[in-house]
């Protein structure tokens, strides 16, 4: 290997090491880019209506701030007040579920009770993984800046990216060789289309499941309806696992009253998700997210475990957009430009 090649290899290794050390910052930047990308579509809509970009950006930011302010002013206080009580009721409901399950099994065969694992035996293998996930995330920023300043930094990055996205886009493209820059521009457009479709779909599902949960649980006279509905909407952001987790609080709390109500809540949530999926497929997909790209459920689950191991809780929540962007880059660079062009030369 020539000296210049060694130098290039050392520089590449150093860059990879540096990127690894600042991975939390890169994840924060990625989050800001996703938010700015989503808001930019609203800015472009205002521009097509005749508004100048500066005013359109300002209007979008003010609208976002108004929505967030209303959310934190009206929703968060009662939600935060109900959340501790919700966790207590869920714990009681899970205990009741375990007791009912053991009672049912003992009626079938009393000897099976001794073969069942205890609660500690189930939780113990999961503790190292949970501690690792909880201990990561934006650890550096939480330790040095705190959550409020981290959110402020996220908002500042989002505003800067939204104010002049083309400059940052061109700066990123110029990091690549000139012959490959048109391909990088194409990849960024594909990432934009993928993220737009998925984020629109997820936000629609989150709003709908929160609204339907609140209405349905209120009709059934369930306690802590606001906290349960909000938690169900937040968990919907997590593909595959989220809908399953969103069933646990209402089903277990309903079990404290009687078993038929628990079954009713379970069936109700299944109907909610089916109705939301039908509305999305019939109305939202043809009108808004025509070019939506998807990932196989198994790959989505693997990506959640992979990104959670590197970035913690935030990586777990952002696994889907991270996986979508990674899928586009792997398809365009690795598959199309390397593997599809790989030819075996006969000696």
Automatic annotation (TrEMBL):
Subcellular location: Membrane
Family classification: Belongs to the autoinducer-2 exporter (AI-2E) (TC 2.A.86) family.
Highest taxon listed in the record's lineage: Bacteria
Location (main, coarse): membrane
Keyword check for Cell inner membrane: no
Pfam family, any one: AI-2E_transport
Membrane association type: Multi-pass membrane protein
Protein source organism: Crocosphaera watsonii WH 8502
Record field: transmembrane: 5-20, 26-43, 55-76, 139-163, 198-220, 226-248, 260-279, 299-324
Stated name of the protein: Permease
GO terms (BP aspect): transmembrane transport
UniProtKB keywords: Membrane, Transmembrane, Transmembrane helix
PANTHER family associated with the record: TRANSMEMBRANE PROTEIN, TRANSPORT PROTEIN YDBI-RELATED
Acetylation among keywords: no
GO cellular component, one term: membrane
């Amino acid at each position: 290997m020539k000296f210049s090649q060694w130098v290039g290899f050392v520089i590449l290794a150093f860059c990879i090491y540096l990127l690894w050390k600042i991975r939390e910052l890169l994840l924060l930047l990625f989050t800001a880019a996703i938010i700015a990308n989503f808001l930019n579509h609203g800015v472009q809509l205002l521009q097509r209506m005749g508004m100048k970009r500066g005013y359109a950006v300002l209007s979008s930011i003010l609208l976002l701030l108004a929505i967030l302010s209303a959310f934190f002013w009206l929703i968060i206080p009662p939600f935060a007040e109900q959340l501790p009580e919700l966790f207590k009721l869920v714990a009681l409901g899970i205990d009741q579920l375990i007791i009912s399950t053991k009672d049912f099994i003992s009626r079938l065969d009393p000897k099976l009770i001794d073969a069942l694992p205890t609660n500690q035996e189930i939780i113990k293998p999961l503790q190292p993984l949970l501690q690792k996930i909880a201990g990561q995330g934006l650890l550096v920023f939480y330790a040095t800046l705190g959550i409020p300043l981290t959110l402020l930094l996220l908002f500042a990055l989002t505003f800067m990216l939204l104010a002049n996205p083309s400059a940052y886009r061109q700066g990123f493209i110029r990091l690549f060789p000139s012959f490959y820059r048109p391909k990088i521009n194409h990849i960024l457009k594909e990432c934009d289309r993928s993220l737009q479709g998925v984020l629109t779909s997820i936000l629609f599902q989150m709003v709908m499941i929160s609204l339907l949960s609140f209405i349905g649980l209120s009709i059934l006279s369930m306690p802590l309806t606001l906290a349960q509905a909000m938690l169900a909407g937040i968990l919907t952001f997590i593909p595959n696992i989220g809908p399953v987790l969103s069933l646990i609080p209402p089903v277990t709390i309903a079990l404290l009253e009687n078993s038929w109500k628990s079954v009713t809540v379970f069936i109700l949530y299944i109907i909610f998700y089916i109705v939301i999926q039908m509305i999305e497929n019939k109305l939202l997909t043809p009108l808004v997210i025509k070019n939506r790209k998807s990932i196989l459920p198994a790959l989505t689950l693997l990506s959640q475990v992979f990104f959670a191991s590197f970035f913690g809780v935030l990586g777990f929540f952002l696994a889907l957009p991270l996986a979508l962007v990674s899928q586009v880059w792997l398809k365009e660079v690795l598959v199309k430009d390397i593997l599809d062009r790989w030819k075996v030369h006969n000696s």
